[in-house]
Design brief:
single chain, alpha+beta, Aminopeptidase, 2 domains, seven-stranded mixed beta sheet, 11 helices, 17 strands
Length: 469
């Protein structure tokens, strides 16, 4: 056999089983070799009884099929049947001819799944109303977590909350700052004192000291030029623990009482003799009620507080014309007044019962200041809140044992007295008793003692107030 076989040489056509011979029909499927035993195909019996020899394993004698015994090649040839083609090859012979190779015909590769395209295809636009299938992902790829929807940022709500927070800080910080401006005095007496009683009792004092007033201010406020320090206003505010009505009790400044170490005198003289400490001791000695907190306000401080509020409303019952009180002239009925007018109204004594009506006006003014200071306008208007806090801090003097919470409870009690609050004066028997200290007020011992006992027992509901008392 030559090294290189000629593809067109019939002798080597059997090597190219994929090609067909147009002249020999048998060459389409068989190749003839000499029979090994020198017999022809007919001598084998039935022409259809042929042996199939694998072309890859040819019989002895070589590809030429040499005969044995010198017999003719035509009679000594075995029919070698071709390997049955696969189904795919048969289909290819039927119509679709496919290329063949040495050793047989190979079937086509298995078809690709229709869902897996061989080449990239353009994305088809979704049909109206059709639900698009989710994109396929590689099985090994991890699906990303769904993206959270972006929340709508309510900037206006955050801004409102920030303003509320700032406002709360402002409401808390301003009183603390104002409390630092409150002057402190020693008002706690030494020695024996009444036992603690239920509830809280405040001693509220209005000083008539002119020491901090200029000549011009004394003229504007009609305070006069009296020297020393006295008390134009003395009141006991009792806030019961049992939920009873609050009691604001006026002590006439000309009440004739015993002053420890000074004998009997008008009660306002105790302040001139020994200041706040002696005044507290005198009140406790004559009433039997223990004072828990001492609070004092001066002339100028009172005026500043009223002006910071924008004025207050007072309701005199009679016409007032008092030249001694800064030429005060007022008609009966409710009316708004400023700071100087409110001070003159609370100090006027141009009435038939003098000091009693004066104490009545003082309780009216103090209550009006407290209620207006605790109104919603004060909380809403920042400049008003600041001015009131500043004026109050600069005008007040408090005992050394009075803390910010004590002042807060006092302001709350004055601003929210309640519809059942009681405003009384210590029961008296005479307003112009002749005494070594001059004309003075004498208490009704029996009725006054009953009022003091009710305060000690925290039973303010049992107290009955009247103008005469």
């Amino acid at each position: 056999m030559a090294d290189k076989q000629n593809r067109d040489d019939p002798e080597y056509r059997w090597l190219y089983s994929g090609e067909r011979s147009g002249s020999d029909p048998s060459s389409d499927a068989t190749q003839h070799f000499p029979a090994p035993d020198g017999r022809s195909n007919q001598e084998e019996g039935d022409s259809e009884r042929t042996s199939v020899i694998n072309p890859t394993n040819p019989p002895p004698g070589g590809p030429g099929g040499a005969s044995r015994g010198g017999e003719d090649d035509d009679t000594a040839t075995r029919v070698i049947a071709a390997q049955p083609a696969s189904r795919d090859a048969q289909q290819a012979d039927a119509g679709d001819a496919r290329p063949t190779s040495f050793g047989g015909t190979y079937g086509p590769p298995p078809p690709r799944p229709e869902t897996e395209p061989r080449f990239a295809t353009p994305t088809q636009p979704p049909q109206p109303g059709a639900r698009s299938a989710p994109p396929s992902r590689p099985p090994a790829a991890r699906a990303p977590s769904p993206r959270r929807p972006r929340r709508r940022r309510n900037w206006w709500l955050r801004g409102a909350l920030a303003l509320v927070l700032v406002w709360i800080v402002f409401l808390v910080a301003v009183p603390i700052w104002a409390y630092a401006k409150v002057s402190k005095v020693d008002a706690e007496p030494d020695g024996d004192r009444p036992a603690d009683t239920p509830g809280a009792t405040y001693l509220l004092v209005g000083s008539d000291s002119r020491a901090d007033l200029s000549e011009e201010e004394r003229g504007q406020l009609a305070t006069g030029d009296a020297e020393g320090e006295r008390t134009d206003t003395i009141m006991l505010l009792h806030v019961p623990d049992g939920g009873g009505p609050k009691l604001l009790l006026s002590i006439p400044r000309d009440s004739y009482v015993e002053i420890p170490g000074q004998g009997e005198n008008k009660i306002n003289a105790a302040y001139a003799f020994g200041g706040p400490e002696l005044l507290v001791q005198t009140v406790e000695l004559n009433t039997g009620v223990r004072v828990d907190s001492y609070i004092e306000v001066g002339f100028s401080g009172f005026v500043d507080v009223v002006d910071a509020l924008g004025g207050i409303e007072v309701c005199p019952k009679t016409k007032i014309d008092d030249p001694l009180a800064g030429q005060l002239k007022m008609d009966p009925g409710c009316q708004d007044v400023d700071g100087p007018t409110a001070l003159q109204y609370s100090r006027s004594r141009a009435f038939g019962n003098g000091d009693i009506t004066r104490a009545l006006h003082q309780r009216e003014v103090i209550s009006a200041v407290g209620q207006k200071a605790a109104s919603w306008q004060t909380v809403v208007l920042p400049w008003r809140y600041f001015k009131i806090s500043k004026a109050g801090g600069e005008s007040l003097r408090a005992g050394e044992d009075v803390g910010p919470m004590d002042l807060a409870r006092f302001a709350w009690a004055m601003g929210r007295p309640g519809s059942d609050a009681k405003r009384c004066v210590v029961p008296y028997s005479t307003l112009a008793a002749s005494t070594p200290a001059g004309s003075a007020v004498l208490w009704d011992e029996e009725r006054a003692t009953a009022v003091f006992d009710a305060v000690q027992a925290d039973d303010t509901a049992s107290i009955t107030c009247s103008e005469r008392r």
